[in-house]
Amino acid sequence: MYDAPPCSIVLVGNAPSLLRRPGLGLAIDAFPVVVRFNNFVTTGYETFVGAKTSRWARAENDDILPRTEAFDRIVLRLQGEREDTFRAGEAALLPKLRRDYPDAAIDVIPRRVFTDLIDTYGFANAPLTGTLVASYLLETHERIAVCGFDNLTGTPESPRHYYDAGNIIGDWTTYHEPDKEAAYLREQINAGRVVVL
Fold first, then answer.
1. What is the 3-state secondary structure (H, E, C) of 8-39?
2. How confident is the model over 170-178, as a mean pLDDT?
3. Which of 12, 27, 33, 191 is most buried, taking the most CB atoms under 10 A from its CB?
């Protein structure tokens, strides 16, 4: 893998491809900052995904479960494609997160990150949380690492997440646009700003 992490921060997606990489967990845990997404699971998967979590990146969806872990920081993705949905999500969820996680700093991904990606890459809908978090973090980090970001590849019957075989891709791709997500990441990889583990 690497003798040392290629940068200070890694974003660990939830794609099933992570389970094809025994030993990746050690490489992930070697990063100073480990960001995980939404309903991530580490218990029982440590060999593949590691155990360390520094930051929790989450969407505002109701199906995101509360966490018992302590985080240094929470990165919150609100529905940023429209001003009214962004403000409504901010008003509803931000106070709850501050109450439930008083020791964690909370970053709200600015609405302009959404609009910049939508305008630049022609998204018809909002990009995935992982793409938004990557774009947001690249504003303050010269380079980031990612793994498990290929959860929209496969057939409609393919699982989306390594920890939930019943959560399949299905018609999810009618809302999300994997080709545009991939184009954004490929551009960042080619520029040397994103390293794929």
1. CEEEECCCHHHHHCCCHHHHHHCCCEEEEECC
2. 66
3. 12
